[in-house]
Specification:
This protein is mainly beta. 0% of the residues lie in helices and 44% in strands.
Amino acid sequence: MGNVVYTKVSPFDNQNHIVMKNLMVISTLFTTGSAIGEATHATSSVDNASVKVTDGGKLNINATDDYGNPATNATVTVTGQGTGNAKLASSFATPDAITVTNGTASVPLVDHTAENVALTFSVVDNTYKDAVDIQTGSASENFLPGLTGNIQVTNSQKL
């Protein structure tokens, strides 16, 4: 985004001599928007605000340009900080960045501790790498205790 000034000056006659009479100057000042598909806006949502540790969660990212069109060449990175030992599935992936496809990216979340996890994400446009093309945001996911897997009860005494 930036300011662009266009100036049209017509000071020449038909022999390319400068003529000072009837000089016309037109100036226009306007601010341009992003390129089509440039990731300049990002929003997030979680599928469920609270999930069981046995189920996992999902962080959804939407990235658009200034006109609401989906971002076309961007990546998302996500970090999480929990009260315990939070693990994000995306942190085990290679590469760590997830590609935005048609303006969206879904990041699976896995945590084996019942806790609230604060999530931070960043969306980076890979075509135009300037300050306006790095969008950040946050969300949270509450991981609840899951169901017990197997319980085996044995009685050492006969009844």
